[in-house]
From TrEMBL:
The keyword tRNA-binding does not apply. Pfam families: Ni_hydr_CYTB. Residues 11-204 form the Cytochrome b561 bacterial/Ni-hydrogenase domain. It comes from Helicobacter turcicus. It is a multi-pass membrane protein. This is Ni/Fe-hydrogenase, b-type cytochrome subunit. Keywords: Cell membrane, Electron transport, Heme, Iron, Membrane, Metal-binding, Transmembrane, Transmembrane helix, Transport. Its main location: membrane. Belongs to the HupC/HyaC/HydC family. The chain crosses the membrane at residues 20-41, 61-80, 92-111, 126-148, 155-176, 182-199. It is found in: Cell membrane.
């Protein structure tokens, strides 16, 4: 008998847009951030005139994508509280269900099929994505501390009293910079694992995977 699948809307249009905006911002921030930490390229300047400020250009793009990541994250958190993301919130019910935990671990060890979920994420995904959200918040806070110490007026001056406790908690500006850099490496560890697991799920379980974050639809057996 032929197996029939039914389409289910798992991720809304805004969820998918925010996902790819965050992905673009993170990749841009990693690229420009490593350049700011170690400027391995310099423009040719045979005249001795102060022109070709590649470092300043990289810093400008770093700031642009940094504030883009902060803005998208704020709206993404708000979206999680709306009706549009009700399916994602139901993932918490799977998180506290030991039967789902057993089924997911068994599936990842290749001993069985993936259990049917109430939400969008299985328990391991839920914990991982929550950790990534906290990681984004931490790297954004340390980035704002560094920003406020360079731009003393305007927004920098406005947020300085708010981010100063973060600087003190981290042990000073040098420690803030070190933590900011270390958190970048956390993203570099997460990204290849995330891509591998998404592709692995898409090939092993044809109901979703890569397609889901593109068109928002997953397929379940009727």
């Amino acid at each position: 008998m032929e197996t029939k699948y039914k389409p289910i809307m798992e991720f809304s249009k805004l969820t998918r847009i925010f996902h790819w905006l965050r992905a673009i911002a993170i990749f841009a921030l990693i690229t420009t951030g490593f350049y700011l930490g170690y400027p391995y390229l310099a423009p040719n300047n045979f005249s001795g005139e102060p022109t070709g400020f590649l470092y300043a250009l990289m810093r400008s793009w770093h700031l642009i994508f940094g504030f883009m990541l902060i803005a998208v994250t704020i709206f993404r958190i708000y979206l999680l509280l709306t009706k549009e993301c009700a399916v994602e919130r139901r993932s918490f019910l799977d998180l506290i269900n030991p039967i789902i935990w057993f089924g997911v671990i068994r599936a990842y060890l290749l001993f069985g099929g993936h259990p049917r979920l109430k939400g969008s994420y299985n328990p391991l995904q839920f914990i991982t994505y929550t950790a990534v959200l906290l990681l984004i918040l931490a790297i954004s806070l340390t980035g704002l501390v560094l920003y406020a110490h360079v731009y003393h007026e305007g927004l920098g001056g406005l947020i300085m009293p708010l981010v100063r406790p973060v600087e003190v908690l981290c042990g000073g500006l040098a420690s803030v910079r070190a933590i900011h850099h270390i958190l970048t490496w956390a993203f570099l560890i997460f990204i290849p694992i995330h891509i591998y697991m998404v592709v692995w799920n898409a090939t092993r379980y044809p109901g979703g995977g890569v397609d889901t974050i593109l068109n928002g639809i997953k397929f379940e057996k009727e």
